[in-house]
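Notes continue from the previous slide.

Worked example: a multi-chain complex. Inputs as given:
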Amino acid sequence: MANRILLGKSTNSNLGHSSGKFGLYISRAGDDITNCTADQLIFNTDNVGSVSGAIDLGQFQVVPTTGTNATASISVNASGTATVPHANLGTGNFLFTNNAFSSSNLSGQELTSNVTTSRSGNGGFTGTTSGTLSNTGNTSATFTVAVIRGFLTSSLF
Amino acid sequence: MANRVILGNDGSNFVLKVSQPGDNVLSPSEPLIFDSTSARTGMTFAGGSQSTTTGVNWSATKGNLGYIPLVVSMDNAAGTIEEYDADSLTETYHEKRNMTETSTTHIIPARFGSPSANGAVSSSPRTASNFKFFVLRIPLQYGKMNDASLWS
C-alpha cells in the first residue's frame, strides 16, 4: 500500500520540497506521497498563485446560494442587473451561468426589417455575501446561476 | 454536533474525509467536501481575469499540466443571439457565444465560423470582454481521458 497522506515535513523533490516543506499533502490511490508528481496530488497546502513553488490555487468548490442550494434562478431585465446572494465563504467568487436559451423563433413571424434578439449574462467577481449579475443582451432572461468559490485576485495566474 | 472529519483508519483504509456541516462523516447523506479515496478532486490550478482579451497564456507563470485541462470561463457574451436579416430573408441563431478553445497553455475566445482545413474554429477568434476563468487540474483531451491518465 502506498503512503498517501503526509501531514508535516515533505522532502518530495518532485514537488520542489528538497529542502523540506511543512504542510498537508495527499496523493491519489497507488501513488506514494513521498515521491509523487504534482499531477498525482489530490490535495496540497503549498503556496498558491504565481509565487515560486505554487501548484494549485485551492479546491474547486460551489458556494451555496441559500441554505444548501447549489444554484439560484435569477431574472434580469434587458441591459439590467440583479443581485445574487450567497453564503459567506470569502471574496473573489465567480458567478457562473448557463448560456443556452430557447430561440424566440423569429422565423414564425412576418418580419419586414432586421431584428436582433440576444440574451446573455455575466457577473463580476463577488463580495463576501453577494454578487451582481448583468444581462448584457437586449431581451429579459432568467439565468440559472452557480457561485464558484474564488480566490484573491492577487493569487491568480 | 455531527462528526465531520476522519483522519486515519476508517475500518478498512487510511483516509482523510470531511463532511458537510451537520452531516455525519461516518454515514454521510450528502457528498463529502473532501474524500481522499477519490482519484481526483477539482483542484483549481490557475485562473485570472481580463477586461478585454483575445486569449490568455496562463503557462507563462504557472507552467502547464502536460495535457489540455478543463477550464471554466465566463464573459459578456455568455448567452444566445438570434438575428433576422430582412434583405436576405435569413435567420441565424447562435448559442454559447462565449465559447472558447483551450490548449495546454492557452484559453482563446472563439466563435463559430467557416472551419479551417482541420475543422478547427480558431480561424474565427473573437475579443472577449470582462473575461474570467479557472483552470482545473482535470484532463479534457483526447488520449488523456483514460484510466492511465485520469486515475493511475
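Summary box: DSSP finds two helices and eleven strands in chain B. The CA atoms of residues 1 and 127 of chain B lie 51 Å apart.
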